[in-house]
Write a structure and sequence with these properties.
Layout: E1 2-9, E2 13-22, E3 25-30, E4 41-42, E5 47-50, E6 52-57, H1 65-78, E7 81-88, H2 94-108, E8 112-118, H3 122-135, E9 139-143, H4 150-154, H5 162-173, E10 180-184, H6 188-200, H7 206-212, H8 215-231, E11 238-240, H9 246-257, E12 262-267, H10 268-272, H11 291-303, E13 308-310, H12 318-321, H13 339-348, H14 355-369, E14 387-397, H15 400-403, E15 416-426, E16 429-433, E17 436-437
Parallel strand pairs: 1-4, 1-5, 6-7, 7-8, 8-9, 9-10, 10-11, 11-12, 12-13
Antiparallel strand pairs: 1-2, 2-3, 5-14, 14-15, 15-16, 16-17
Helix pairs in contact: 1-2, 2-3, 3-5, 6-7, 8-9, 9-11
The protein binds zinc ion (ZN).
Length: about 450
């Protein structure tokens, strides 16, 4: 039972309440001082948010999934994360590997999770109905960045050209089960040519990866992808991941106003950093851009034309991550645990977002986009008791030790962030308590989503 906190709900606003859980679900919400429980967390002067859902992580990309499900869910709990969407891709049939993959996840996650599978070639397209029916996986990803690289990178017969995308969008549009198509919007013809030219010219520094992926190459691909979805009547959910440029945000807002069913996600690094502050630790695709981009993304997030925040979390050590120069080393950086604290510190405290909107963009909206709602993403009777208690006034500098990831560096190292979780509850069990991670590997479970005919 969480006693006397201020519940922050996108649907019902802010109110003081006791919130009780039984058998993993929220059983009662009542006036402060009226409920009791076996375990009681005092939330006086604190906020109670729906558990954070980070819809965009890559666990098990550079080291085995068993290790990362353990260490990265441990880190997530520190930041109030109760569910992650693990996006992965393999150049082989998923129907052959999913049983083993799912068993590894189930044995090692400390919080809940779901999967999003990359569609790379025709065999993946053919498998879609079986993946949904047999594994309950209903979200997929279209990697625009692998258009010209898929054959070599995944040892396939051919590249991931638009004819393949044309087929999988049609296939998804034809499913009775609600699905999600996450889309990495990048015009790879443009970015590959710019990359080759910049490398030949000896360009280096963070600005080089900003120049090789200009905002218009994201925006153009985002519009083209959304239009393909529109052509096939697919709007359930066409979800553009990691929107980084103001052009993309503006174009997607325009499509939404025209009736396109498209959902936009941005990531904390595009909201909390500018390119001038970045070095090889923030070698991320798409890159962090300008202050004008950052300001526009906050505005779209506030106004509802960007609906979700994710992190694109990838754990790696400083040695693995950093290369000879900006062209070398690994893509991606760890940041799931700082997602809610940064949205509170840089968003709510700076007057860019309301508390209710912060709860919506860090939990509820991702639950809706990925068909986890109202099991996840809601503080209401019957929903999973995934809750995070936040001290809005606690200020701490970000350090790798604080975040408990396998990564030995942080993108926001040294930054003073205000607004940290004191307690994280996963399905009614106290999983993080003022610095101590209490949940064990295996305590997390797969979030089953609705499947037609089941
Ligand atoms: Zn990603």
């Amino acid at each position: 039972m969480i006693a006397g906190g201020t519940v922050v709900s996108p649907q019902q606003g802010r109110f003081e309440a006791d919130v009780a859980a039984d058998d993993g679900r929220i059983s009662r919400i009542a006036s402060p001082g009226t409920l009791d429980g076996e375990t009681v967390v005092d939330a006086t002067d604190r906020y109670v948010f729906p558990g954070v859902i980070d819809p965009h992580v890559h666990h098990g990309l550079f080291r085995p999934l068993d290790a990362e499900a353990d260490t990265e869910s441990r880190s997530g709990l520190v930041g109030g994360v109760t569910t992650t969407g693990n996006i992965f891709r393999r150049g082989e049939p998923y129907t052959e590997i999913m049983d083993g993959y799912a068993a590894t996840a189930e044995a090692n996650y400390r919080h809940d999770y779901f999967f999003t599978l990359g569609l790379l070639y025709d065999e993946h397209v053919a498998e879609i109905p079986e993946i949904i029916a047999d594994h309950g996986v209903t979200s997929f990803k279209w990697y625009g960045n692998y258009k010209l690289q898929a054959a070599e990178r995944f040892d396939l017969d051919r590249n991931l050209l638009d004819d393949v995308a044309d087929r999988f969008v049609q296939r998804l549009a034809g499913q009775e089960t609600p699905t999600t198509l996450a889309y990495h919007a990048e015009n790879a013809e443009i970015t590959e040519r710019l990359t080759a030219e910049l490398q030949a010219a000896g360009a280096d520094g963070y600005e080089a990866i900003v120049e090789k992926f200009p905002g218009y190459a994201e925006a153009q691909a985002a519009v083209a992808g959304a239009n393909l979805a529109r052509q096939h009547g697919y709007d359930d959910d066409f979800y553009v991941v990691h929107v980084s440029s103001r052009r993309t945000a503006a174009d997607l807002a325009e499509l939404q106003s025209l009736g396109y069913g498209v959902t936009a996600e941005t990531c904390t690094h595009y909201l909390a950093l500018t390119a001038e502050e970045c070095d090889q630790r923030m070698r991320i695709n798409p890159p962090v851009r300008s202050q004008a981009d950052q300001d526009a993304l906050w505005r779209h997030l506030r106004e509802g034309t960007i609906d979700c925040v994710g992190t694109d979390h990838i754990a790696n050590t400083r040695d693995e991550k950093l290369g000879e120069d900006i062209w070398d080393g690994l893509w991606g950086s760890p940041s799931s645990a700082t997602m809610l604290p940064l949205v509170l510190s840089e968003g709510v405290r700076e007057g860019r977002l309301s508390l209710e909107r912060a709860a919506a963009v860090t939990s509820t909206n991702a639950a809706k986009a990925y068909d986890l709602y109202p099991k996840k993403g809601a503080i209401r009777v019957g929903s999973d008791a995934d809750l995070v208690v936040v001290d809005p006034d606690e200020t701490k500098p970000v350090t790798p030790d604080l975040l408990r990831s396998a990564a030995d560096y942080a993108m926001y190292e040294g930054r003073e962030v205000t607004g940290w979780p004191t307690h994280t509850v996963v399905r009614g069990r106290l999983a993080f308590d003022r610095g101590d991670v209490l949940a064990d590997p295996g305590d997390g479970t797969h979030v089953d989503r609705p499947v037609a005919g089941r």
